[in-house]
Write a structure and sequence with these properties.
With 369 residues, the chain is of the alpha/beta class. The protein has helices spanning 19-38, 58-73, 96-101, 133-148, 164-167, 255-264, 286-292, 321-333, 336-343, 345-351, 355-368, and strands spanning 2-6, 43-46, 77-80, 107-108, 115-116, 120-124, 154-160, 184-188, 194-198, 201-205, 221-226, 233-238, 245-251, 272-279, 297-298, 304-309, 312-316. It is built from 11 helices and 17 strands. It is globular, with a radius of gyration of 22 Å.
Amino acid sequence: MIIAHLSDTHLGRYMGEDEERERDHYEAFREAVDFILEDHVRIVVHSGDILNKPLVYGTPLKVLLAELGRLSQSGVKTYFTLGEHDIASYPGTPNPLLLDSVLGLAEYVGDGRRHGDDKISVFGLMRHHKAFTRKLEDKLEKIAAEARNTGSRRKILILHQGLHELHGPAGDLSLAVIPDEFDYYAMGHIHNPSSRVKGRGLLAYPGALHWTKIDDPDECGFYLVDLSGREPELEWVRLSNVRPKIVRQVDEEDVGMMVSQLLSENHVKKPLLSLMVRTTERKNMRKLEEELSEKYLLHGGRIMQVVRGSNGLVYDEPPNIERELVKLASEVIKDDVDAVFFTGEFRRLLVEGAVKHAFELVWKHYRER
């Protein structure tokens, strides 16, 4: 039994911002489906963040339905859960439009119930925010009890969570609370591919199908999982059409040489270029940016400059607002979990005008802690 494990496709990323980079995610998804069909894989699991935003419309939905349709018409069964990018504004609520759209093409397993047949049982839960970790742990206990009484030959658990033991502060859950009753743990949320033994089975993150940030891994793909033997075996499938990215730093006096070198290189697909120039004062780089734009997509649409001043370095680069908000909130509240909660989901609901839902979330947050 071979299954394909995909995650974090983020269809619609850069929509309305950059058409070329938006297409990257559609092309990566199509390439993965091509491989699955050519390799005659019969089961696909997707660990969430299917879309980049929970709004179901336009090209992202069109591509999703077309590719799921290709799989379904070829007799491929697709099981999926939802990540935070797929979830509706109301906390912890699956987007009904997304679920209705894929009805008949793929099976949603994020409800914690058993899915599958006598050969394979598939369980899953949608993404749970850190504020609801206890509720997530309770649900996993119920899943474990049901899985123990299931007679299927193979059992799969699909989650969209980070793990403390593997991802440190990015983790939401301890590996110890994930039940040992499964042969394969199809994980999502973390963009770096990794795998490890878990009980009698194998736990794996395939990473993003196409990178979304400059510090994501350069190589992207998915896993083929062989469950026919006594122990699961993984095969990494590297996608060939992932956009390359290049990161360079150079002193002001050497920038001309660096640009000439970059322009002499040839690439099948325009790389994303992050070029940082160390200088003593801010310079007009427009001419160099225009030259580079012939062969590269510039990260942030420009060359970044680091100005050396008497007070240290000043980065000509937009700050990470989300990270700074969490940092400031943590200093005031003196609690990292509350800081993440109030600057994250709670703030997002207030911005969207869902005040009632936001305050319901506060009540749930403190009741669960």
